């Protein structure tokens, strides 16, 4: 299935570039392959590192920015602007989903919630066609909660 999605997004990119008379550069297609070979969220630096280490295909930061901007316009990638960083995610096959975001450590976890998807699908919108959604749920992850509890216990011991 992953290969089917890669072929589909490659065809979307190819059609767009041909239709708009843009060059079909190896950089664009290699970056697209790297994006769709990455599971979950990634930063620009992580994508760059993957291109260098796994693909032996270094590109400039400007090329990465411009290519991801194109992918955003084509809805092949979604950008998540989180507390302290910007992360990207391949979205062609996964437009609608929710994220848990830890406000302490910044960890982002994707969660599946059929109830939320069902509620949004049933939601009436006036003069608007829904294509997908992203929901962010902010809170504190269990790891950070445990650290806070340990720290509070240590502070109590110091006071006594």
Topology diagram in text:
Blueprint: H1 2-19, H2 26-36, H3 44-53, H4 61-73, E1 77-81, E2 86-90, E3 97-102, E4 108-111, H5 114-122, E5 134-139, H6 142-159
Parallel strand pairs: 3-5
Antiparallel strand pairs: 1-2, 3-4
Helix pairs in contact: 1-2, 2-4
What does it look like?
Helix content is 49%, strand content 16%. The chain is built from 6 helices and 5 strands. Strand 3 (97-102) and strand 4 (108-111) form a beta hairpin. It has 160 residues and is of the alpha+beta class. Helix 1 runs antiparallel to helix 2 (26-36) and helix 2 (26-36) crosses helix 4 (61-73). It is flat and about 75 Å long.
- N to C succession of SSEs: HHHHEEEEHEH
Helical stretch tally = 6
How large is the radius of gyration?
Answer: 20 Å
The assigned structural class equals: alpha+beta
What is the percentage of strand-forming residues?
15-25%
The counted number of beta strands is 5
Low-confidence stretches: none
Helix content: 40-55%
Taken from the alpha-carbon principal axes, the silhouette is flat
Average pLDDT metric: 90
Cα(first) to Cα(last) distance is 60 Å
**Strand count, sense and closure of the main sheet?**
3 strands, mixed
Strand order of the largest sheet: 4-3-5
